[in-house]
User: What shape does this take?
Amino acid sequence: MRLAETPCENPRFFAHGIKQMPARIIDGKAIAQQIRDDLAARIAAVREGLGRSPHLAIAIVGDDPASHVYVRNKLRTAEDSGMGVTLETLPGDSTLDETLAVVERFNMSAQIDGILVQSPLPAGMGRNAAQRVFDTIDPGKDVDGFSPISAGHLSQKRSGFAPCTPAGIIEMLDRERLAIEGARAVVIGRSDIVGKPMAMLLMHRNATVTVCHSRTRDLPGVAREADILVAAIGRAGLVTQDFVKPGAVVIDVGMNRVTDADEARQLLASQPKRLKLFERRGSVLVGDVHPNVAETAGALTPVPGGVGPLTIAMLMANTVRAAELRLSG
Ligand code: NAD
Assistant: This one.
């Protein structure tokens, strides 16, 4: 007798798929550590070849507290990985020209392999400021992958730097042995830094990709088709169980700080420890995916501790690669 293989043929799988089993929670921190461990030998080889460590330079403008926390995490991770770092802090009333001058200085330095300008830039710099900054970063040092040259290379599947968040998600799917080829993937969000490059990377890996956004009709219905669902929206808990096919892999990119007590109670009803944390601190970080999706999904990334650490690990990987290219070029 032939063994039943698909969920519909095998009643045990069917029961499993329907939601009796809670989702496997993917440990982004552990995978990020593996990625960094794998970089150690490459960092040592660069040190040997160039006579210095791979070097990441970051510029930050203004005093947005969240941005400063992100920058500190990136610098600390780079230093812990044995890499060199430079930090340039500009006052919030700096002009775009002053910011571009810092980027040009980083571009010219033979000691710097990777450049990152922390977003967002102060609103006073004008609407196109970020674009002008991305246009100015040397594509060979564009470890964030936001320049139009990097975006073009990604779109044409040529070698270059892919943005760290979507690149980290692909790395995580691979390391967790979650199949991409042939999967139906739905990406909610179409930003240049997450949604679009995510769709591109999934497509390059032979997933069948749909991109959704704020004007998508019947968003839950489209999302429910996904074997791999990526939420990159910026709306706390928007993705609820009715968006998720039983057993799907759900990747939560969102990072939303919730300060409203009712909203926190609604989102964290099943997570009493985190609710206590909210009551102590008055705010809590939550994703775009409602925590009760864990009852429907097959695998789920948590917030915090999911995609965030992977993003930083991929920034390290891109910086090491930039240094290797300098070594070989
Ligand atoms: P963005 O604001 O540039 O884009 C959001 C996208 O979501 C847009 O394309 C918009 O069309 C879509 N959208 C908005 N409301 C929607 C709705 N109601 N229904 C469907 N689609 C909707 O944001 P972004 O820069 O792509 O970031 C998205 C989220 O990911 C944010 O919470 C951000 O903080 C987080 N983020 C996390 C990391 C990380 O390392 N974990 C990195 C980057 C961004």
Summary: The chain has two domains: 51-147, 163-311.
